[in-house]
Amino acid sequence: MTSDNERKKRAKEALNKPARYGSDLDLEEFEYPESDIAELESLDEISSTEKQLLESVGIDPEQNRAAGAFIQLDNEAFLADVMIKQEGLEIMPLSQARQKYDWVENYLWNAVPVDTDKFTARSELEVYEGYFIRALPGVKITAPVQSCLLLKKSKSVQNVHNLIIAEEGSEMHIITGCAAPSSVERSLHLGISEFYIKRNAKLSFTMVHNWSEKTLIRPRSAAIVDENGIFVSNYVILSPLRSIQTFPRVRLVGLYAKTELNSVVNGVGESEYDIGGAVSLEARRATGKVVSRSIATDKAHIIARGDLVGLNEDTKARLECDGLLLSSQASIRAIPMLDARVEGAELSHEATVGKVGAEQLNYLMSRGLGKEEATSLIVSGFMKLEVPDLPPILQRSIEEAIELSLKGGM
Amino acid sequence: MTLLEVRDLRVEVAGIPIIGGLDLGFDTGKAYAILGPNGSGKSTLAKTIMGLPEYVVKGGDIQFEGESILNKSITERAKMGIAYAFQTPPAIPGIRLEDFICKICPDYACKGEDDMFMTNGCVCKDTLYDDFERLGIANLAKRDLNDGFSGGELKRSELFQVLSMRPKIMFLDEPDSGLDYDSLKIVGRELKAIRDEGRTTMVIISHHRYILEFLEIDKLFILKSGRLVYTGDMSDIPVLEEKGYEKFLEGVLPA
Ligand SMILES: Nc1ncnc2c1ncn2[C@@H]1O[C@H](COP(=O)(O)OP(=O)(O)OP(=O)(O)O)[C@@H](O)[C@H]1O
Ligand SMILES: [Mg+2]
Hints:
The complex is a heterodimer. In chain A, 19% of the residues lie in helices and 40% in strands. Chain A is α/β, with parallel strands linked by helices. In chain A, β2 (68-73) and β3 form a beta hairpin. In chain A, α1 packs across α5 and α6 (358-365) crosses α7. Chain B is globular and about 60 Å long. Classes of the chains: A alpha/beta, B alpha/beta. At the A-B interface, α6, α7 and α8 of A face α2 and α3 of B. The site of adenosine-5'-triphosphate has 13 residues of chain B, from α1.
C-alpha cells in the first residue's frame, strides 16, 4: 500500500527526532519483538503470578462483571474475550482487525502523527501489536471492558499500538491496567493509543499502573472527539518506575464535544514523572477540563503539565493542577499553559504546589487526631478523585487502588 | 472547682505582643461569655489555650485540672477534653463531614478495617443522622469538610464537631455569627441542653446577646487590647448593647 510506504518514510525521517518533553532514551539499548503474537486459548494459560499482577491494577480476569477483556503479555501472547451476552462489542488484536477491516488503516496514525517523535517513529518501524476495541453504533456497554498489558521481559521493548473506537451514539467504559513484575530490568513500554469518539458517543478510559522500579514508559496517546461526544480519561500511577513521560492530546473537533482528563500520581522512590494533557478546542461549544493531582514522597520528581488551546470561539476549558509535597527531597513542578488563539475562547487555570498546610493540620489535630493521622487524612482526601461521568464500580476501583497505595507507601 | 485557669498569660503572634498579662478562671459545668471589641484578643486567647503553634506563650501559665498544659501538643489537649470551634475553619477537601464526625466522636465511632480511613463499609450509628437533622445540616453530611459551606453552615458544622468530641470545656468562637433566626434558635437549644446536663464548661465568644441570654450565662469577661478589663454577669448585657464598649467601659473603669 502506498499510504503504508508513505507512513514508513515519514517514520524513518523522524527516527532521531527527540521527544518534546521528558528525558531522552537511547532506543538502541533495547531488544525489539521479532515474531507475531500468539493467541492464548483460555485463562488457564496465564500463570498465577501474572494473575496477581493483573489484580494489582484492578483487573480480575476471573470475574464476570466485565463486558469483555483483552490481556497481552509482552508482545508474545494475548487473550481476547467478549462476554457472550455482550452484543455490539468487538475486542481483538490490532493485527486481526487490520485483516478484517480495510478501513482500520485510516485510523492508524491518524490521531497520533507517526512523526511525532522518535518513539512513534520507532514504534511504526518495529513489529507491533495491541488491542482493537470498538463499540458498534448505538450500543451502550455499561459493564467495564478490561484490558491489560503485562511487561515481563528485561531489556526489551513492549511495542503496543491500540485502537479504540466508540461509534456514533455508543457508550463504553474501558479499564486498563499496565503492570510489570519487580524482576523486570530496564524495559521500555512504548504504547501508542488512538481514540475515536464519534457523534453522541461516550468513552471513558481508566488506567491504573503498577510498573516496576526499572521500567521506562513512553505512551503516545491522542483522541479525536466528534459532535456531542464525550471522552473521559483517568490516568492513575501509584507505583515506582524509572521514568514516565506522557502528554496525551485530545482534539475536540465537533460542536459540543467534551473531554475530561484526570491524572493522579503517587510519586514514590526515585521515580521521574512527566505527565500532562493537552486539549485542543477546535469546534464551537467544545469544553474541556484537565485535572492533575500529585503527591511526591521519597525522592520522586514530578512535572505536571497541562495545555489548553482555544481555536474556536465560544469554547471553554479549565486546568487544575495540585501538588502535595511530602518529602524535602522530592519535587513537584506544575506547568500550566493556556493558549487562546481567538476571542471567545475562555481558558482558566489554578495550580497549587506545597506541603500539607499547617492550618489544616492544626485544625484536624484540635479535633484529637495525631499528627500522622491528620497528615494521612489530608493526603487521602487530596488524592480523592470524583469523576461524575464514570460508572460507580470504576469510581470505587480507583478509590480502592489509591487508598491501598497510600497505606502501603506511608 | 476550677477546671481551667489562665495565669498572667502573655502571648505573641509573629513577634507582636497580643495578650499582655491575663488572669481568668473557668469552673466545671459553668457557662461564660468572653466579650470585647474586634481585635481585642478573644480568638487569640482561645487558640492559645488550644495550643495552636503561631500563638507563642511568652509568660504565665495555662492550667487544666491543676496541671500546666503549656508543653502539651494540640492533640494531647484535645484528648484531655479541650475543644475549640474555629471562627473561620479551613476547608479539607476529600473528607466527608459525616465520616469525620464518626472519626472524632467516641459515641458514633465505628471500627473500619483500620483506624486510618473510614471505609465504605463502615456505617455510623443512626443517631448521627438524627443529630445532623436536628442541627439542620443534613445536607452537609456527604459534603467535604467545610468545603464551600455557607457562613451559617460553617458555624453549625463546627458546633457539631466540637459537641461530638464530648469535651470537658469548649471554646466556641462566635457560634452565633451569620446565623439566621431559625438557626440561631437551633444552636441556642442545642447549647441549652448541654448546659442543663451541667457536665461541660462553655466559653462563648460572641458579639450578640441572644445566645448568651438564652443560656443565662454565669459570668462574662470583657477583654480590651489583650487585657481583662471587666468581669460581670448577664445583667450587664443590655447596658453593654445600649452604650457600646467604649462608653460602657468609661463608666465602669477607674479613669
Ligand atoms: N495569626 C496572626 N497573625 C498576625 N496577627 C494576628 C494573628 N492572629 C491574631 N492577630 C492579631 O491579634 C489581634 C487580636 O486578634 P483576635 O483574632 O484575637 O481578635 P478578636 O478579639 O477575636 O477579634 P474579633 O472580634 O474581630 O474576632 C488582632 O490585632 C489581630 O490582627
Ligand atoms: Mg475573633
